[in-house]
Amino acid sequence: MKETCQLAILDLGGLEVLLNLLDTNDIRCKIGSLKILTKISQNVQLQQTIVHMRGLQRMVNNLDSPVKELQALAAETIANVTKFHRARRTVRQHGGIRKLVKLLDCFPNSADLRANMEKDLEVARCGASALWSCSKSTKNKEAIRRAGGIPLLGRLLRSPHENMLVPVVGTLQECASQVRRAHGLSCSLLLDV
Fold first, then answer.
1. Phi and psi of 49, rounded to 5°?
2. Is the dihedral of CA 115, 31, 153, 151 positive or negative?
3. Which InterPro entries match (predicted)?
């Protein structure tokens, strides 16, 4: 977490190694890499370097993984990195908005609902956080709407978990002006979803 250590990782080529691990088939390597990337991606210089090194594309690709922990870590790291325009555009251009919206659907009709509920909620929370960060862009707001994100975010408003509600409400707030302009919806209709 120390900035000097983060910059040392960058200077010694560690960031490139961590990003390359996201392209492997070893799930444990990917998870380990993303655990570190999630922490160090809060540094602005590292955010820009991650985008420059095509790291966001690799993270977006990992959102399709069937491994919940990997999905959550990839989404959380995307949320950290997408603090500037180029990063948000990169996520959208590589199909990341659609994949992040898909993570919000954490209430599938399955028999093992309770066993996976905690993991599914964490994946949805991380997906909502990444969408909140990405929703600072007008084109991304439209992409969230087209991907079906508004009804899924509306469903998550019923969550009793505060850590889920903050990114959900933040994303809905960012998207509200875009939704109203595109469909003439009022905020009250949005909250009735």
1. -70, -40
2. negative
3. ARM-like, ARM-type_fold, Armadillo
